[in-house]
Amino acid sequence: MTATLNPLYRFDTLVVGAANRLAFTASKAVAESPGTVYNPLFIYARPGLGKTHLLMGIGHAARAINPRLTVEYLTLDEFVESFHAAVAAGQGEAYRRRFSDVDLLLVDDVQFLTHRREMQAELLRLSDALQTTNRQIVLTSDRPPAEIEALDERLIRRFAGGLVIDIAAPDYETRVAILRRKAEERRASFGEGVLEAVGSLVIDNVRELLGALNRLVAFQAVSDTPLKPAQARALAGGAELVEAKPEKAGKTARNAEKTEKPKKEPRAEGLDEFSDFLSEVSATVAQQVDSWRTKVAAAILRWEGEGFSTARLEALLQQEMTTDPEQVLRQFESDVHRLQALHAEASELAPSLAGSSAFRDPEDIAGAEAVTQRAREGAHPPPAPLPIWRLDDLFESPGNRMALQAARAIAGEPASRYNPLVIVGASGVGKTHLLHALGNALAPRVKGPVACLSAHEFTGELIEAIDRDAVPAWRARYRGAAAFLLDDVHLVAEKDRTQDELFVLFNFLIESGRQMVFTSALPLAEMKAVEGRLRTRLEGGLVVDLPAPEREVRQQVVERSLQAKVGTVDPDLAAYVGSRPVESIRAVHGLLQRILNAAEAQGGPPTVTLAREVLEGSQPKPPRKTSTRSSGVVAAAGGNKSREKIVWDWPDVGDRIVEEWR
């Protein structure tokens, strides 16, 4: 199986500086000669410094040099989940063979091996198997092997036997180079000194640096004047950061970890019985048929060994000559990869389909797609945005302009500009309204469902899935979403399993080119109980603030509510309520509702005078007593009684009605 690598994560898109030059050089060497130098290669760094970029860059470069190379990229979480699913389906050995046959294995975030003895043993066995056959393994972590808690000493020795190397925080020159490169990619131009001003800040995380650039781009898009260096520094968080002096280039790898493991000589003897058999078959075929027949025969042996039907290739061997056997082989391999992708998706949706023969015949792709479609239809779609909220209903003001402009840009070009978008604001300022409105704007523009829910609902669904032993189907539900919108992401704090699942989902969606939007009531820097690896990914997008509503917005909200509830708009009343100092749209609605309740109780229209009485506690008029008698019979223990209704009118709070029975 060849994993999908993020096309943006290549060596030529990586800015190389003093902090990552040694790791970059080692990675290039591995890509050029997999299995012969630095095996295993272990790269560690804090989140956001480019480990995943380097890891995928190795895969892209190695595949460009040798297109036939099989490359597998996955995170440790995915490795663990896939292994458990395979064991549950009785496919444990097939799963082990899958990785043993990979030419280049790339494993991200291995720090999560902590206290996982079973998976440590699996990784040790796999590492030994790959090294024995001169196949390459590259791993990344946020800490060196010796600092991974409860890690097997044998694994530490295996990693140290290759090359263990770190990536440091980028220096001033590298930060400026990154900003210039990314600004050029975004076709954004800034005045002299702007990017240098941002680069002078101590932003030691590349994702945060790109988040700062996103803020500059978004601000300049809605500003009438070019950005000044001081403004750029403030937008990038300069008020809270200290200027940094250009650092001197230094060594970034530990001397003790630079020792290169001697190259292993290719095996000349000791082949196992099956390898001897394959060698004999290949030699015999090479002597009896043309060179293209040798390739076809080798492909048949390979794909039959993996359990796929090879009738198409066998028919090719029966021909006297074929004009382009390479094209036939490429198409066959493409069909096999399609079957593998369908099998993986169907197994996630319906674990009972794991290992199904429906995904073993390249001549019946349509049948495999039909089985997968039935699995999709059997899965529950994710929650959709509430249809009552629309982007057109939102009022724009100087305070919320950047957030609204970013939302409209995303609606116009999903996943191409600001991904993810993080909206930060206090409770009640309209974050949820904007989130659902953006979800409704995205729905007609993306192919697939738009998932829109709160972090509380996300955690609740996960707990329910764990309880029903249906986590794979739950994951597939969100991996199938064309866009993912999560409200109140700060609420995942201290929920370790939720954060793990959200991190894996985030990586999957970003690599699949799906749009993500999050809201938070806390600034990202204050989300201390959220794991750094997740927080830095959020910071790598565009983070915009949604402030308390300004007076003009409050007034427009009141006018629209009056039109909807009363049928007419009193401009003076709208202006008065809009002038009240409140911190949220929710509070504006609360004030207006109090006035409407009082007006209804008095039986008259809402007015400015009434509003002042209700909201400011003006001196009420003297209460008046009205008496009405009604004949009738009221059942009571003592017999029949007539009643008198006494109405006390308090203008400041509305009518209070007291009934006295006598």
Task: Report what the structure shows.
Helix content is 47%, strand content 11%. The chain is an alpha/beta fold and 662 residues long. Strands 2-3-4-1-5 form a 5-stranded parallel sheet, sandwiched between helices. The protein has a 5-stranded parallel sheet with strand order 7-8-9-6-10, sandwiched between helices.
Question: Which terms summarize this structure?
Answer:
alpha/beta; 662 residues; 5-stranded parallel β-sheet
In short:
With 662 residues, this protein is α/β, with parallel strands linked by helices.
What count of helical segments does DSSP give? 25
Low-confidence stretches: 239-271, 281-289, 619-662
The helix-and-strand class reads alpha/beta
Estimate percent helicity. Answer: 40-55%
Main β sheet profile? 5 strands, parallel
> Biggest sheet: strands side by side, in what order?
2-3-4-1-5
Overall 3D shape: globular
For the residues shown, what is the average pLDDT? 80
Radius of gyration over C-alpha positions, nearest whole angstrom: 33 Å
End-to-end C-alpha gap = 87 Å
Portion of residues in beta strands equals 5-15%
Number of strands: 13
